[in-house]
Amino acid sequence: MSEKFVVISGCSGGGKSTLLTELGARGFATVEEPGRRIVAQEMAGAGLALPWIDMAAFARKAMALALEDRARVEDQQSWVFFDRGLVDAAAALDAAGPDGLDRALIEANRYHRTVFLTPPWREIYVTDSERQHGFAEAVAEYERLEGAYPALGYDVVVLPKTGVSARADFILDALCD
Fold it and tell me: How confident is the model at residue 86 (pLDDT cuts 50, 70, 90)?
């Protein structure tokens, strides 16, 4: 377990990437969402592991990338903020088919006990070439994660729908309590 690895998860289009940019600007190490990187890579190539084509293949790639990300930042001495992580990918794989959550893998690669979730926020939700699902699918994803993290022993804190600076302050205050 690494108490310095902090996951920001939740609803697609809920402001996670913007929040990580803010935390990075404040000097913290950040890790970009695996899914976005995979989609960009797949769209530039064969495009077979895209979530709208083969969710299971996409989720397996996201799990592998999440593990690589953890190994890459293991030497960081301060907080490292992750835009999603291994649990997100495992929950997607579980939803895609019969593989189920690999609890042993997840337990061996735990994050900070507190996970921050961005709630569904229709006013800022947008689709683009890498996020093709609608708001209803984003809400369903959020609900899966809202259940998955506590089931795995994490404390979930839902972020307020407020400006990015206030959200970053909220997270830092919560971590220092």
Answer: very high
- Contact indicator for 78, 97 with CB cutoff of 8 Å: no
Q: What is the residue range of 88's domain?
A: 5-176
Better pLDDT: 142 or 48: 142
Please tell me the total count of domains within the chain.
1
The yes-or-no verdict on residue 132 having pLDDT over 60 is no
Angle (deg, nearest 10), helices 86-96 and 55-72: 170
Radius of gyration of the chain (CA): 15
What DSSP string describes 87-153? HHHHHHHHHHSTT---HHHHHHT---SEEEEEPP-TTT----SS--S-HHHHHHHHHHHHHHHHHTT
Whole-number mean pLDDT of the chain?
A: 87
Structure tokens, 22: 């803010």
Instruction: Kindly report, residue by residue over 19-54, the tens digit of the pLDDT.
Output: 999 999 999 999 998 877 888 887 787 777 876 777
Chain-centre distance for alpha carbon 36: 10
CA 53 to chain centre: 20
Question: Closest Cα partner for 157 from 2, 6, 31?
Answer: 6
CATH number reported for the structural domain that contains residue 23 in this entry: 3.40.50.300
